[in-house]
Design goal:
Layout (H helix, E strand, L loop, with lengths): L1 E6 L20 E5 L5 E4 L5 H8 L6 E5 L23 E7 L8 H7 L16 E7 L5 E3 L2 E8 L5 E8 L2 E5 L17 H18 L5 E5 L4 H4 L10 H11 L3 E5 L7 H12 L8 E4 L5 E3 L1
Parallel strand pairs: 3-4, 4-5, 5-6, 10-11, 11-12, 12-13
Antiparallel strand pairs: 1-2, 1-14, 2-3, 7-8, 8-9, 9-10
Protein name: MBL fold metallo-hydrolase
Pfam families: Lactamase_B_2
């Protein structure tokens, strides 16, 4: 299994001299199994260049799994050229939105209406299927099994575990560990904490001993004090996830758009200098990083 990080930035693309080292494209991960099956997680702006490269060998056959439909995870799809070409076969998976009662196709098609984009979804010429996933519903893509797990974010968000030939990879999408909305002295505190502990244990069990995790780490512990409830993790939350689940390697991703390369280096050095780290190997996710399992 080869994993290529095509976009590691959160919120909005930020090209420029301050993001050359780690990249400015928003979320996209390309996974290629040993058998050549192509799996793509999220369609942030990083998917555009991936599409250009895939067009060198037709037809394109791939499966795209969307963690959630916030812009930074789907905004590159209208520029994914394989969608426009007859003979390509593309299966798109994601969640039904129970709040707005919209299926995946409707949500993705709306960002291609004429008021936003010059080509409508109905004019795409590839063979495209849209599939609304349920939590825990395993999908077989060639030799790989992809399983979604619902984890905490302001909109329904799936983390995806990809397993193939004994290797296992997990991507959180956007994830903030759930917080107790009650104070310790409140009547509902203990019961709510019990539910939170259950949710964390479900995630821990789901990713136990996974080889590689790419996890949302948009904020530092200092920034998080004013960002609670925004739906994103910290280095501390990622480290605790790795410790609890005995993760082999974890990449910090979804870098805040205001973060420069120099700031990412400085923060990484500070985190790595801590004395209480688990045995997990930690890295900063970098656009173009290739991970071989």
């Amino acid at each position: 299994m080869i994993i290529n990080l095509r976009g590691v930035r959160g919120s909005i693309p930020v090209p420029g001299k301050d993001t050359i080292k780690y990249g400015g494209n928003t979320t996209c991960i390309e996974i290629t199994t040993d058998e050549g099956d192509k799996i793509i997680i999220d369609g942030g702006s990083g998917i555009r260049q991936l599409g250009n490269e895939l067009m060198k060998q037709l037809p394109v056959n791939c499966s795209i799994f969307i963690t959630h439909t916030h812009w930074d995870h789907i905004q590159g799809l209208p520029f994914f050229i394989p969608l426009f070409v007859p003979g390509n076969n593309i299966d798109i998976y994601g969640s039904f939105d129970p709040v707005y009662m919209k299926d995946l196709k409707t949500i993705l098609a709306q960002q291609m209406e004429y008021c936003y984009f010059p080509v409508r979804e109905s004019e795409l010429n590839a063979n495209i299927t849209y599939n609304n996933l349920k939590e825990g519903e395993a999908i077989q893509v060639g030799s790989a099994t992809v399983t979604p797990l619902l984890i905490n974010h302001p909109v329904l968000n799936f983390g995806y575990k990809v397993e193939s030939n004994g290797k296992r990879f997990f991507f959180t999408g956007d994830y903030e560990p759930p917080l107790n909305i009650y104070l310790p002295e409140d009547e509902g505190y203990i019961e709510y904490q019990r539910l939170i502990d259950q949710q964390k244990q479900i995630l821990t069990n789901f990713i136990q001993d996974v080889d590689v995790v790419v996890a949302d780490c948009q904020y530092t512990r200092e920034e998080y004090l004013t960002k609670k409830g925004w739906g994103h993790g910290t280095h501390d939350s990622c480290i605790e996830m790795a410790r609890a689940a005995n993760i082999g390697t974890l990449y910090f991703t979804h870098h805040d758009p205001t973060r420069t390369d120099q700031e990412l280096d400085r923060i990484y050095q500070e985190v790595m200098s801590r004395e209480d780290l688990p045995s997990t190997e930690f890295y900063i996710a970098k656009e173009g990083t290739i991970i071989e399992l």
